[in-house]
Each structure stands twice: as C-alpha cells, then as structure tokens.
Design a protein that fits this description.
With 158 residues, this protein is α+β, with helices and mostly antiparallel strands. Helix content is 18%, strand content 39%. The strands form three sheets. A five-stranded mixed beta sheet has the order 5-6-7-8-9, covered by helices on one side. InterPro entries: Restrct_endonuc-II-like, tRNA_endonuc-like_dom_sf, XisI, XisI-like_sf.
C-alpha cells in the first residue's frame, strides 16, 4: 500500500512532505546556497541541537587549549575531539624531567544532548564558558560531582 504524501505549493514549485520519514534533517536551497533544515520531532534529542552543542564544546576547548601555559618542560597540550563518540578532551602530554606526563585537564562528553563535564581543571569553569555561548544550564551536567550532590547545583542532574 502506498502512503499519500501531503503536497504544499510554493510559488511554481510543489513540495511533498513525508510525515513518516525517519531522518529529521533535510536539505533545501536558499537562493544559491544549500542549507540544512530540521524537522522538529518530539521523540528525542534534536540532531541540530546536538550539533550545536558539539560545536560549542569544541570552540570552548579550542580557545582554552590556546591559553594554557606550558613552562620550560617538554610538554604539549593535546586537544582531542571525537565527534563520533562525543568525547572532547584537553591533555597535557610529554616529559617533566625524567617523568612522563599524561594528564587529562578537561574532559567533556555529550550524553542525551547534554554536556557532561567529567573533568574541569580550569579556575573559572568550562560550564561558565558554555553558558556564555548560549548553552543552557539544563544542558550542562557537572559530572565530576557525585549524583547525590548534583541537585545542589544550578545545573542539570543527569
């Protein structure tokens, strides 16, 4: 049995709507540019919201990685972005004299469209910087706090 697709007339163009489509992102054209349009559903986190959160995290960590002083030791700052598994980190790597250094400085991951801050070695907090970019407190989990303490913060519990 073939499903009937609703039709919308836009000027001289006909647009068909597949209300049973499994993808929520479609491609459209505006003037001479190709754009992504989100069809918002209520079945789970939005792909566009997750993409936006991912970009905010990467921008904040990239900015932070540029400001970390290294001193005179043979250290480097490694920014790690894994957009497939949604893990984002800044590590100290290298040698301090005869000792190997491999230390996570910041670790943020995305779970169910929320930024879980697993490790935050900054003084003013990565959460504050995410907020400054428009990420709401309801999308930020201070995961370095135990679950029983999270309700005492102004951020998401999980």
């Amino acid at each position: 049995m073939e499903r009937e697709q609703p039709e919308i007339k836009l000027g001289d163009n006909k647009v068909y709507i597949d209300i049973f489509a499994s993808r929520t992102i479609i491609t459209a054209y505006r003037e001479n540019e190709r754009i992504a349009v989100e069809v918002k559903g209520f079945t789970g986190p939005s792909e566009m919201e997750t993409l936006e959160l991912r970009n905010h995290i990467i921008e904040v960590l990239s900015d932070e990685a540029k400001t970390i002083p290294l001193g005179e030791d043979d250290l480097e700052v490694a920014l790690i972005t894994d957009s497939i598994h949604d893990h984002y980190q800044i590590l100290y790597l290298g040698w301090q004299g005869p000792h190997r250094t491999y230390t996570p400085f910041i670790h943020v991951r995305i779970v169910a469209d929320k930024a879980y801050i697993e490790r935050d070695g900054t003084e003013d907090g990565i959460a504050t910087r995410l907020e400054a970019r428009g990420v709401s407190r309801s999308q930020i989990v201070l995961a370095f706090h135990p679950p029983f303490k999270r309700p005492l913060t102004d951020y998401a519990v999980a």
